[in-house]
Amino acid sequence: MSFESNGSQSSQTQPIPLSDFLSSQDDQHFVWDDADREHSDAWLAPVRTALLDPKKHKVFHHCSKEYLKPPSPFVQQGPELGDSGSTIVYKVTPPEGHAYRRPLALKVIVCKEKSRPPGPDSKARSDALKEVKTMSSLRHPHIVAYVASFEDYCIQTRQIGRRPRGKAHATLLSVNQRIKKHILGIAMYPPAMCNLHTFMDEVFQSPRAADWIIPHLHTYFGCLAQAVAYLHRRSVQIRHKDIKPDNIVIDDFGLPVLTDFGLSKHFETGQDSVGPTPKTLKYADPEAMHEERRDERSDIFSLGCVFLEMATVLLGQPPGFAEEQLAANRDGDGHSISSSSGSGGTSSADFNYSDSLHNLDAYLTTLSLLSRDIVASDPAREPSIRAVLAILPHIRRMMSETQTSRPRAHQLYPWFRHLYDVYEIPGPCPNCEEERRSGRAIPSCRRRSGSRSPTMNRNGAVGGSQPLMRRGTAGSMAAAGAAMPASQPHLGPYGGGAAGPQVDGRVDSD
């Protein structure tokens, strides 16, 4: 393995904002060498077909090993960031002694096809390499960045022999080798602290954290709208197809990052798709549920569901309140929508927003009524409440039952941009504002001055003694890293969805 560096090793050990990471092309300093590299054309041909750069994607030769020890060759730092059985996400660094020291997230997928490790020319492997190619082409300050990837596999040796009658020893007839395990590792930046679901839960679990989570949450509407608009650009043309809170992570600087492109799909030759494809049921759009023709506006529906949960939290209710209330009258049984008990309700395994849209208008009215109590008890929150109530009609349009009634992604940012102005800190996202003005998703590398926002530690709480850190600037985590406890609870910031094999909680519905 080979690493290049254009800065001091100490400066590369600290997290930096994703915008700085991209504008400085930090990912280009990671380059694989040729040690232990696979040379078989059966393994390398699919890599070439996927148009992957061999400097960034390496297939290791099995070297007669019978076991794999992920996240090797990377070095794990702390507990796993996410685990869905067939996929584990680690926080890692390159091995000690190498120049490139940036902390990364490493997604390790156990590749299977019909419960068996796939061969080098299998469809499961081809699909996994497509995910790598999809990620490597994306460069946006609110979309996870691809750094490098690798494949490794081990073999199982079986000796077949025959012992003639009356003989003490068997005669060896053949030696058979087969693939025992095959993994794909994708190194990404940033290694986030938690996902959006955990982030919103923290508002109700830690009132102290809510004082800065709520102002940041206001800004996420615009940031995520710009991220999806970037994916849907004519020059990119990618549908994410699995937008949900678990696939939106929050980095060390309090910025939202869209991740997990295992279900993404290019639509270079056409924007429509039909038939069953994997997707998380809860956030699936109506046309996907019925396996009808769909396009990039399926992402708009899913993003609208996420925005609905974010607005619910900003209007004083737990994130599960939307599901609880919409499910209560999903079958039109005459039950009324009522105020939350504060628990957020119990999650229904078969709940999905698409089947509850007939009840959505009543739910939005309930949110408006409940917000009056919040203003009455805390008048200082009135500007926030008014700003959030103003976006509810836009969220309703995003969640329209008919595909043609939903907006395109490029229309969204102006609808939610006013939320930046509710709180002075953190204020507008400079990257999104620059993209609005110039169309450039990656700004020039520059230093900015102004307001600062605190960092969040591994358990989702705000570090009380830590200095406030500027939103979206480098060098903000040195003190935070020293203050973090040695043992941290598992938060699972990354969704953990695997490419190839089906994952629990997903159905064939786009």
Question: Would you kindly provide a written description of the structure presented here, covering whatever features stand out?
Answer:
- The chain is an alpha+beta fold.
- It has 2 domains: 160 residues, Phosphorylase Kinase, domain 1 (2-Layer Sandwich); 284 residues, Transferase(Phosphotransferase), domain 1, CATH 1.10.510.
- 29% of the residues lie in helices and 16% in strands.
- It is built from 14 helices and 18 strands.
- The strands form 6 sheets. Strands 3, 4, 5, 6, 7, 8 and 9 form a 7-stranded mixed sheet that branches. The protein has a 3-stranded antiparallel sheet with strand order 10-12-13. A two-stranded antiparallel sheet has the order 1-2.
- Strand 12 and strand 13 form a beta hairpin.
- Helix 4 runs antiparallel to helix 5 and helix 7 packs antiparallel against helix 11.
- The longest helix is centred in the middle third of the chain and has 25 residues.
- The N terminus and C terminus are likely disordered.
Please describe the topology of this protein:
Elements: E1 2-3, H1 18-23, E2 30-31, H2 41-49, E3 57-59, E4 75-76, E5 82-83, E6 87-93, E7 104-110, H3 123-136, E8 145-162, E9 171-189, E10 194-195, H4 196-205, H5 207-231, E11 238-239, E12 248-250, E13 256-258, E14 265-266, E15 278-280, H6 286-289, H7 297-314, H8 321-328, H9 360-377, H10 382-389, H11 392-398, H12 412-416, H13 430-438, E16 452-453, E17 469-470, H14 478-483, E18 506-508
Parallel strand pairs: 3-8
Antiparallel strand pairs: 1-2, 4-6, 5-6, 6-7, 7-9, 8-9, 10-12, 11-14, 12-13, 15-18, 16-17
Helix pairs in contact: 4-5, 5-7, 7-11
